[in-house]
Amino acid sequence: MSTSALRNLISLKLKPLSISYPQARIFRNPLASPARKMSTFVQAPHKLLVIPGPIEVTDEVLYANAHPSMSHMSPDFAPVFGDCIRMIRQGRASGSSDAQPFLIAGSGTLGWDQVSANLVEPGENALVLHSGYFADSFADCLQIYGANVDQVKAEIGGAVKEADIERALKAKKYKVVTVTHVDTSTAVLSNVKAVAEVVKRVSPDTLVVVDAVCSVASEEIQMDAWGIDAVLTASQKGLGTPPGLSIVVASQKAIQVFENRSTPVTTYYGSWKKWLPIMKAYENNSAAYFATPPVNLIYAFHASLTQIMQGSVSLEQRFKLHQDASRRIKKAAEKIGFKGVPISEDVQANGMTALYFPDGFVANDIIPRLLKKDVVVAGGLHASIKDKYFRIGHMGVSVVDPSRGDIDKVISAMQETLAEARASKQ
Amino acid sequence: MSTSALRNLISLKLKPLSISYPQARIFRNPLASPARKMSTFVQAPHKLLVIPGPIEVTDEVLYANAHPSMSHMSPDFAPVFGDCIRMIRQGRASGSSDAQPFLIAGSGTLGWDQVSANLVEPGENALVLHSGYFADSFADCLQIYGANVDQVKAEIGGAVKEADIERALKAKKYKVVTVTHVDTSTAVLSNVKAVAEVVKRVSPDTLVVVDAVCSVASEEIQMDAWGIDAVLTASQKGLGTPPGLSIVVASQKAIQVFENRSTPVTTYYGSWKKWLPIMKAYENNSAAYFATPPVNLIYAFHASLTQIMQGSVSLEQRFKLHQDASRRIKKAAEKIGFKGVPISEDVQANGMTALYFPDGFVANDIIPRLLKKDVVVAGGLHASIKDKYFRIGHMGVSVVDPSRGDIDKVISAMQETLAEARASKQ
């Protein structure tokens, strides 16, 4: 394929940006470089991956992950990193005009360390809102870095009620409140906007930290409008990139709190003191060194963000498509006898589904049969109900590109699987 | 290409393993799977990357990095991760029979956090042997986690003398001694074997920690025979994989020291308490979860380790090839007027070269001209001499596969560049 034909192909899939950027108006697309022979790359045939992350990713993203080795200090690479910083700020990871992104090699978990070691000082209080497994882990992390942690726990399948948050905030002064936007162990969606409202009203100095690992790009987040101080996520879920990149976006208020610490930061690798000048340099399209960034993954992340931000599907449509796919899967599942883990519709995530097995069935009746139909789902994770349910992810390209037929495949595989499992018991 | 033809092609490039494995004798090669159409993938044309990491990587490694999304909990993925753990232990990252590898998403820098937060308790003493920039950073990291750090500094271009190490060890009891095997800022090679001998003789309880980020697979390391307690490295240098994987190998003695801590580990993401059961599970070819591993990068790492461990070039030949390439480059450079940063031949690294510009020349005379010849080198990094020198990496496939002509290209580009620079001054 000629360069111009390739450019035409790409331009058909992209629409002009409607948002403006402080430093650069146009994102460089490394896939559009004449040296990149995208047309030759198609990912290998494989089972459909519909766990709540990692998710299916596009050929373009995988091809970018196979970018030839590049120097992390190269003037060709720096603006690609810079674009990622700009896109993640402007996109729905943050919906902010001035928040500070940190893109660091690591798992999503590293975001907890960043919050615990940069925003909280040893001996300060943290309030963790518990809607599943990941709150316990975040609390554990905060404690390791010296915070005094209280948890407000919802019932399994529920989100913490605002009245309970208000009561806790009135009883004690907290440096941070953390909320898991979508808990990957329960598929429970917390109302982050409402949580932030309560905090701003009752304890306006308290920072609102959102664990958005399983929600960015499938659920709306508005840092500025809602008053969120830190959003932490990872590359391998709604952001449609292989795992290995920790992404944290901090409000300017959070950055000020970090800068006004009275004690030193308690991590080295996750220290914003080290990373802040690096992120600022790359955002200015020039390289700086603290630790070698995951260069190939940054190219892959750039390819995915470009598809998300400039693709023919707008961000609003993207959220709508996630809601639609979620409803279809949940409805189809309930119709044949599965019951959702979330206790009510208003706490159901749109990017994943957690389903109790019908009475008399266990994981081994369902998950291996789905696997035989080339559909890979995830088992239970929440300790109290681990063996009683399973989880389906429906994020990113599986949802946004209906021509793939992924959602149809998941639904029919579920239907056939349960019919077979029922038949085998008779 | 048919599956059998592909298998034949791969078998031509591999020779049988001569080492034995506790759990599995044969490494699975994901590239040999019928579903992988390796024959169609050739990496895009690009400038020759000869910085001291990231380095050039093979098409097989990049194709593995473009592996379709896989669950980190998949029974297909777990043995691939398990193979990486086994290969890194048996290979020249450790040369150990029972040491414990940790493969964690992150930069090489994360290895410093792992050592500082798992092996050293707050208030304990650490001795850092300084042969360049990276010792200062390791010292900084140790201090952040509460260690009392002393440094023994070599002159620029030198390694710390054994007599100085002995004197320091006799003056104070240290929990750890750290040595940078090859300091990427100076290209100085430290004699790790000799350092370990001094420590074992003078202060046998002290742990010997080797920062081997820029030495694994280009310099020999024998953990067991030399008495090394921790080797920390990263994926993007001698190990020939894109950046984004922190690799630490800890001796059983180090693991015991970690397990007998009297205070809690001071990191969450880098905590061996969290990762040890995960590494043990994957080594048993079953998945376990603490934080999502960088799945694609693990496939890429597997592809590279397979080429290193099972390729037609033995590990001994690999070291010899690095020595030969290093000598050729250094000799050619000195012949035309460059002077090496290392002060003597016995402290010259084999995987990289640091060269002072000839009198009257600066970085701008040399580096952009090399770039115009499609040769990407690195600028200076050591603060005291930053503008006076540059650095060339010669590791991995650029050295091991002479048919690429990379080393010839580097040498002739250097020669032409300096001739042009000289001509331009006349």
TrEMBL record, chains A, B:
**What keyword terms does UniProt attach to this protein?**
Aminotransferase, Pyridoxal phosphate, Transferase
User: What name has this protein been given in UniProt?
Assistant: alanine--glyoxylate transaminase
GO molecular function terms attached to this record? alanine-glyoxylate transaminase activity; L-serine-pyruvate transaminase activity
Similarity remark = Belongs to the class-V pyridoxal-phosphate-dependent aminotransferase family.
Q: Which residues carry this modification: N6-(pyridoxal phosphate)lysine?
A: 237
Q: What is its EC number?
A: 2.6.1.44
Q: Which domain of life is it from?
A: Eukaryota
SUPFAM superfamilies of this UniProt entry? Answer: PLP-dependent transferases
Give the source species. Rhizopogon vinicolor AM-OR11-026
Q: Where do the Aminotransferase class V domain residues begin and end?
A: 64-384
**Which GO biological-process labels does this protein carry?**
glycine biosynthetic process, by transamination of glyoxylate
Q: Does the keyword Transferase apply?
A: yes
Per UniProt, the enzyme's principal EC class comes to: transferase
Positions binding substrate in this chain are: 391
Which terms in the GO cellular component ontology are assigned? peroxisome
